[in-house]
């Protein structure tokens, strides 16, 4: 007689099915996956000025980003500068009749107000686009410090040469500047600290505001890449010029062309590093003598007649720096755009 194979698996005598829930016990259900949110990062090749064009992007986001950037810029600057003016009034440095003077405190708080636009710009960029702040620095998702060092190696000597040339022809540097005497005074060390510590952040803030979030918001509108990019460069350069409040034609041309140059540098390198370096070096060199001047009002006088053709020199320095750094980066194979579909993995 055949014996049953005790080692073989025997069928379950009870039919398969869900285990009935016990009294007082809730049945367990696996939650169904919800709809996936659109990616805030590009999923197709894009350069720096078009980096906002992602599945999550919409034109209204860009328009509101530009509006809030403008409102935030003027709000922060006015509030911070008002604090500086209040300090001058309380300490007796100025009175109601001399509020138009540029005092060390007013200069410091104006500089600080501009610098504070940097975190504000990063937050607005994040809020309206969903991209983390690191993606505003470059298409690689971060501030590339190696590019900064390369840019400094090229830019710093050129701007030093520019400074030496302007010192040889002081009368061409602007109205009244040829007769200014310099020396150490009571505000020198305070002003020196402001120039050295705050100026790099002030320059970076303007680049992140105008060439970063502002240019991207405009450049990502419309289907035509070239047209949208050109419009973005022109509009942000005009806004950059207006923000400096100049009425001299030479200064108007200088600020506009400086904005165009920084935009081109950003587009060609795929990030804000080169523009930040050139802007910071330009401002540091321009303000190097400021802590030793007896009076600051003339330094920031941008009325008609204060500019000169010599303002072309920093533009030439910037153009040469951009050309060399771009050539250097291309030899090194530095990323200047999102290279392929889905390249950025995280927001």
Provide key terms for this protein.
single chain, about 350 residues, mainly alpha, 9 helices, globular, disordered C terminus, hydrolase
Summarize the structure.
Residues 10-21, 30-43 have a biased composition (Pro residues). This protein has 347 residues and is mainly α.
Describe, in plain words, how this protein is organized in 3D.
Helix content is 56%, strand content 0%. It has 347 residues and is mainly α. It has one domain. Helix 2 (104-129) runs parallel beside helix 5 and helix 4 packs parallel to helix 8. It is globular, with a radius of gyration of 29 Å.
- Averaging pLDDT over every residue, what do you get? 87
Low-pLDDT segments, ≥5 res: 4-9, 340-345
How would you sum up the global shape?
A: globular
**What portion of the residues fall into strands of 2 or more residues?**
under 5%
Q: Could you give the count of β-strands?
A: 0
Radius of gyration: 29 Å
Q: What's the number of structural domains?
A: 1
- Tally of alpha and pi helices: 9
Distance between the termini: 72 Å
Order of helices and strands: HHHHHHHHH
How helix-rich are the residues, as a percent range?
A: 55-70%
Structural class: mainly alpha
Main sheet properties: none
């Amino acid at each position: 007689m055949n014996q049953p194979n005790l080692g073989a698996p025997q069928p379950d005598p009870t039919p398969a099915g869900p285990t009935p829930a016990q009294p007082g016990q809730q049945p367990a259900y696996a939650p169904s996956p919800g709809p996936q949110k659109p990616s805030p990062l590009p999923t197709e090749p894009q350069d720096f000025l078009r980096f906002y064009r992602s599945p999550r992007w919409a034109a209204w986001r860009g328009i509101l980003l530009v509006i809030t950037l403008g409102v935030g810029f003027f709000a922060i600057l006015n509030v911070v500068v008002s604090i500086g003016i209040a300090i001058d009034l309380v300490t007796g440095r100025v009175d109601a009749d001399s509020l138009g003077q540029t005092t060390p405190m007013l200069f410091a708080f104006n500089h600080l107000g501009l610098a504070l636009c940097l975190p504000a710009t990063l937050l607005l960029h994040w809020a309206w686009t969903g991209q983390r702040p690191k993606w505003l620095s470059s298409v690689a998702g971060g501030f590339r410090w190696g590019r900064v060092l390369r840019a400094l190696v090229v830019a710093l000597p050129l701007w030093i040469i520019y400074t030496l040339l302007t010192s040889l022809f002081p009368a061409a540097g602007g109205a009244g500047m040829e007769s200014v005497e310099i020396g150490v005074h009571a505000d020198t060390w305070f002003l020196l600290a402001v120039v050295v510590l705050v100026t790099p952040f002030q320059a970076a803030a303007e680049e992140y505001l105008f060439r970063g979030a502002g240019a991207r918001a405009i450049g990502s509108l419309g289907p035509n890449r070239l047209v949208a990019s050109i419009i973005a460069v022109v509009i942000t350069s005009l806004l950059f010029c207006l923000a400096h409040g100049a009425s001299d034609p030479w200064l108007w041309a200088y600020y506009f062309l400086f904005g165009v140059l920084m935009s081109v540098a950003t587009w060609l390198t795929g990030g804000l590093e080169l523009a930040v370096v050139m802007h910071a070096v330009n401002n540091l060199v321009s303000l190097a003598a400021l802590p030793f001047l007896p009076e600051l009002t003339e330094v920031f006088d941008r009325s008609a007649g204060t500019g000169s053709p010599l303002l072309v020199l920093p533009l030439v320095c910037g153009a040469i720096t951009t050309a060399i750094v771009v050539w250097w980066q291309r030899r090194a194979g530095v990323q200047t755009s999102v290279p392929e579909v889905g390249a950025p993995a995280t927001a």
